[in-house]
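Trying the structure run again after the queue cleared.
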Amino acid sequence: MTTTASYTGYRVLSGNEIRIDGRDKVSGRMMYTADLHRPNELWAAFATSPYAYAKILRIDTTAARAVAGVKAVLTADDIGHPRMGRNMQDWPVLASGVVRFIGERVVGVAAETQQAAEEAAALVDVTYEELEPVLSPQAALAPDAPILHPDRNSYYWAAYDGKEHPKMYHPNVQGEVHIRKGAADLEMLFATAHRVFVHEFTTPRLHAGHIEPHSTEVWVDPDGTAHIYSCNKSPFLLRRQMAVAIGIPEEKIVIYPSAIGGDFGGKGTTIEEYACYYLSKVTGRPVRYTERYSEELEIGGYRHPTYFKLETAVDANGRFVAHRSTVLFDGGAYAGSKPTPHNLPAANGYFYLPYQIPNVHIHTSAAYTNAAPASHVRAPVSIQLIFAFEQHVDIIAETLAIDKVDFRRRNTGHGNDTTPCDHQINDWNGELVLDALERAVDLRAPLPPGRARGIAFAITRSGGGFANLKLTLTADGHVDVETGVPEVGVGMHTAMQRVAAEALGIPLDHVSVQRLPTSTAGRDPGVGGAWGMHVYGRATEDGARQLREAVAARTGTTWRDGAFVDDALRRRSLTELAPRVCAAGPLTAPGTYTKMYTDPAPFDYMFVALCMEVEVDRQTGAYKIFDVVQVVDVGTVINPIAHQGQMDGGFIYGLGSAQMEELIVDDKGKVENMSLAEYKMPTFADIPPLRTILVHTPGKDGAYGSKAAGEVTNVAVAGALANAIANATGIRLYHFPITAERIYEALASREQTTAT
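Done. Tokens:
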């Protein structure tokens, strides 16, 4: 059962959407990057490192060059040792001197066929001196740990362009942030508190889970301009990063955004374009590359493995007094896949906590290791944090003998309270969501033996950013929305169409959305970070407003209640006025919007409360989920069908993290489960009974009061499941995924301890 809403006040938004890209996708006509082919193209392949950490002593490419059809074989020496990265450019396009993770690219090959390229890459002879790898962040921070990047101060770091890099507490630290709120010194608060609770949690390495592998095609034309088809979701940012790394003007790089077969954060970092640029430049021909999925799982951008130490002081009434956290991320071999200024997956990840804590100290850092580089994955820190913190909350409530919903209710914020990161919130809707959960589920109703419920409570935030687009009105009453933002599958272009049609009072089929290359579109950061409906919705509204004002000025009319009204009070539609307005040519209007993360104004936050009912077989550890209820704080829904898809899909995404997903790395640094047969993701058969209840509270950031929906329902799943398992068995699991094997081992360990 899903609770939906009907927006009778809107002409367009009151009905369900028809996806702009829907017919092409379901018919198979949609062209993804791997489907695009230029005449006379070459295929790329790479010789990669078999070691997690080793010196490169010699590279012999003689045999590779002799393969029929090979047109180029390049090493780092051939291309000038460029480095790439979204913020810090510490990741070599091709490794030089040392390799730092298994699968790192050492030599690039271009050939007439994919088979010839792969054959040549396999014949590259590299002599290595294997070194002892550093495979955990704790090992990386040991006093005697090898320094993995001794020349890091020479790397370009966009956040500190032309400035001195900040000093880290250890040479293997990629970045760190200290967050403080309230008292400068927490020791007295902890010493005098009613109770202090300390718990530690860890989470694993996870893949983003997009089905479409990374793919690109690059052609450097005779005048040196690079034409690039890419599945990267941020074309303008890719252009800027490539320009800095390669050393050419941005105008010499044109990114043509392709359809994107799923993102989930994994399409923000793509690395194929850089090596293919050099291969194309040398050969003068287009060069294409599509990763195999085994390569995706070996070197793709991962969710950061994370360690948490949580310390919380509470008073006798069960209210938070102070909190202290130590958070350590395994950042992998390079920080280049992280876009944040501090080289962390999310410097202020604690804005995912729906609580008012008056005194907070949080130290967050990421360490270099000899694992593949970790990156941003859907809600980069939230799944890890809520898994840990919501168990922490449950333990505190149990110990204090306070009802778990009441404990959360008394500690959520109100009014002008701020998050643990000291961020303001437009509206604290936590109590509304908790109240709705209690109405939907009788949390105190008895259950059969072995069965129990678990809850979790979280928030996500509408992202900040900027957008530049253009609306063009033609004489036939048609409006084109021209944008540089790709469609990653969430229905962003459809939402822009619907917002424009609503704002201009015209039928949906009178609005089209055109995706333009970087050479003609306005500068745009791409979609991601839960800023879609906030940033692009508002930019579309702005463009529609400016177009209305231009039409009104040319026709002497006034926009009122969805139509243009003339002096005789006759209502005239935009379609009627378009031939007159556009007699001399199309009318254009820019649409812009900016609200950055650093903006002091409050942001919209979306609250979620999740209840999961499970039954555990104590003999085997196997468990079954009988019921799930998720209550979600939402605003005006722009794309109703896609919105519900986000609600359901977000939960299922979180379920995969909670139950089954984990990239397993052996003691040499090699990923062991490098196929989707071994890296398990949930399928339709894994979905438990799921009810979604929407609590509608209009947003203040998004178009027409909309709020972000992409991340809110995946963040609390692992925490709710862990709490349900604990309530059913009395054991706590401090690491996910929560598998039958781990439950069995914990139960067996407890029994052995009891017997002893």
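The CA atoms of residues 215 and 290 lie 4 Å apart. Worth checking whether this holds up in the mutant runs.
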